[in-house]
Amino acid sequence: MDAVIASLPEYWDGFLRTLYLSVISGIIALIVGTLLAAMRVSPVAALRGFSMFYVEVARNTPLTIIFFFAAIVLPRLGVKFEQFEVAAIIALSSYTAAFIAEAVRSGVNSVPVGQAEAARSVGMTFTQVLGFIVLPQAVRTVVPPLINILIALVKNSSVAGAFFVLELFGYGRQLSNDYGNQVLWILLGVAFFYLLITVPLGLLAHFVERKVAIAR
Amino acid sequence: MTSVLYDVPGPKARLYSLIGSAAGVLIILGILAIAVITLAQQGIFDADRWEIFYGPMAPDVWNLIGQGIVSTLTAAAVAAVIAFPLGIALCLLRISLIPWIRIPTQVVLEFLRGMPVVLMMLFVLLVFATGQFQAVVVGLVLYNAAIFAEILRAGIQSLPKGQREAGLAIGLRSFQSRMSIEFPQAVRRMLPSLVAQLVVLLKDTSLGYIVGYEELLRKIQIMADFLGPDFLFPAFFVGAAIYILINLTVSRIAIMIERRGSKKAAGGMAPPSVRTGLVAGGNDPIAKDSVEGPNKA
Question: Based on the structure, what is the number of domains in chain A?
């Protein structure tokens, strides 16, 4: 127990870095994912094909492989990062974007056909239909799964700990080396900090789900 | 293709779309070309870099890769076989009528689902001082059993109330009704989600790399370390391709099962609203193909 208290500063540092990784990658993934989803439903075949290919490949690639590529293979190919955080953010956001794209797309598909037809019949263009009519309604269906994706993102950020980033999991590994006899408490401490992020997010997802639930 | 979002394109729009497609293809090709040129400058495409896969070293290299694949698949298979019954047991406890069984189970499930899988693997490895294989399997089992339990619970709750009432009315005990009436239907209804979770499980075996289990990725790295940095990219490329191919195959099978199942399942498949977002903490929060909305164009 005292090992945990003694290493509270490390925990705090790791906690903040986990949050940092999750927030930055989350924002990038949301933007890229929405773009991918827009490409997926667009009238231009090449964009549709590209988006479909990207989502399919990214969703079927283990995150560890993407991390391995970003943190170990890329530097070998001459792409140098100042910090390994950058590699972690690239890996996390490119992986998560695929899931977000799928969630947004399914949300778009859940909007009744009549909505878009009505919008088209008053003369709106594709971008207008998407931006003013469909996406605002799709958001309601999309938000709960999106929160779940973000929870998964927080947990996935732990993989960064194995690729030279000292976030919660990274510190957990380091501290369990330093305090070999108190591994149990050290790792339970790490678990506690993860739950500190994931459990409130889970409750939020549950709450939002009930709040925005609409009968169609 | 028609869509909700735009009318069937006329000749003008088709022309624009064609131009757009051409531009899109050009941009994508351009990015690819830049990547290929960068790689070529590193000498990636020199034949001697790839010699390991067909030269004199090839048998050893493929042997190593084969071992990696076997370890990956073994861990996934063992974990899946243990996790499923455990998931059923957890689900039974979770929907138990007795509060002091139900509530602690709920807490445990939330705990397991809110935790990174790799942390559980490390925990097992260090605290129980097991081997890497056991650590990987136990980590995967704990996490996926919790997810299976949640999927099955959602499946049971999506059944019409009358199913259970009828079971109880013909004199089955609560447990008997659960096992012989509700579970078979729940499993069928949730089959797509369950198989999608199996894909996640397979993907997560790669986390074994982090705790030192010698699965495919670790073997690749060992190989690259042994052969020298020049071979890192070719080795990685082949390894990643194998991983993605295996996963894509399993995903395809999942989709096939869903197509077959939706014709056969008793009450039909659960509606997407029951299934999406189910795998709350999962790496794959959206089950394959279950994401299609009811108004799919």
Answer: 1
Identify the CATH number of the domain in which residue A147 sits.
Answer: 1.10.3720.10
Least Cα separation, residue A186 to chain B (angstroms): 10
Write out the two tokens for B11.
Answer: 């000749």
Q: Do A41 and B13 touch (CB under 8 A)?
A: no
Residue A200, token pair as written in the block? 């409130």
User: Distance between CA atoms of B164 and B216, rounded to whole angstroms?
Assistant: 46
* Domain containing residue A172: 2-215
Residues 6 or more apart from B106 whose CB is under 8 A from it? B94
Spell out a b/e string for A185-212, using b for 16 or more CB atoms within 10 Å of the CB, else e. Answer: bbbebbbebbeebbeebbeebeeeeeee
For the four alpha carbons of B233, B239, B242 and B244, in that order, the dihedral sign comes to: negative
Distance between CA atoms of residues A32 and A47, nearest Å: 14
State the smallest CA–CA distance between residue A76 and chain B in angstroms.
8
A140 interfaces chain B, CB cutoff of 8 Å: no
- Cross-chain CB nearest to B293 (options A60, A109, A199): A109
> Of B20, B39, B240, which has the smallest distance from its Cβ to A65's Cβ?
B240
Sign of CA dihedral B33, A89, B42, B46: negative
How do residues B102-146 score in pLDDT, each as one tens digit? 999 999 998 998 899 999 999 999 988 888 999 999 999 999 999
In chain B, the residue whose alpha carbon lies closest to the alpha carbon of A128 is B5
pLDDT digit string (tens) for B141-165? 999 999 999 999 989 988 898 999 9
Cβ pair A57, A69 in contact under 8 A = no
Residue numbers in B near A29 (CB within 8 A) = none
Tokens of A164: 């030279």
**Is A92 strand, coil or helix?**
helix
Q: Is the ipTM of this complex over 0.90?
A: no
